[in-house]
Description:
Layout: E1 7-9, E2 14-16, H1 17-20, H2 22-51, H3 60-85, H4 90-114, H5 116-141, H6 148-171, H7 175-193, H8 195-207
Antiparallel strand pairs: 1-2
Helix pairs in contact: 2-3, 2-6, 2-7, 3-5, 3-6, 4-5, 6-7
Amino acid sequence: FFFSSRRRHTRLRTVTGVQTCALPIFMLYSILTGILIIGFCTFAKPALLIFTTPVYASSFIAASILAMSFIVIGYGYIASIGLNLAKTNTAIAASIFIASAITITGFYFLIPVWGIEGAAVSILAGQLAVPVYSFARAQKRYFIPYDFKTTSLLFITTLLFCALVIYISANYRYGIVINCLILFFFIAAVFFAYRKSAFLLLSKLRQR
């Protein structure tokens, strides 16, 4: 299914089966990591209280933000699919340089204001530059018809839910209960919104 030699047409050009191999990966990664990161934000504070001393409990905010940055790193790997097919890696090197510049600049301005949370936000902002720049360059070198609009909406929604969960954890003593309800709501909403795509993908995988 992923690497079949079939061809299909988009509005812009003909796309081969090799190019479409990344499409389900892109969407599934966005859905699954969205659920995982909200789950991480939900249980980060309780986990720190259980497995560490109360002194470290306040670091759950920075830990949650850093977890988001690792999710963003995965998008960079997906962006590299097109670059690897085009046999060029200069965009990846350039994106890493841009990410480093953004991160260092963020350290300078945000750490004095927000402390460890400022460092975490700087890292997240820097990591975001890698997939954004890499996708922009990769699409010009080797076109893959990603659904950037839907995926971007899902990613932004995930970040908003994470921010809400972190806020509740920081301000409500029994926020874990509310956050679990938010997590279940997010899971149900995502699977309801993308149920057709999920069923289609599963049916094609079974055929193989």
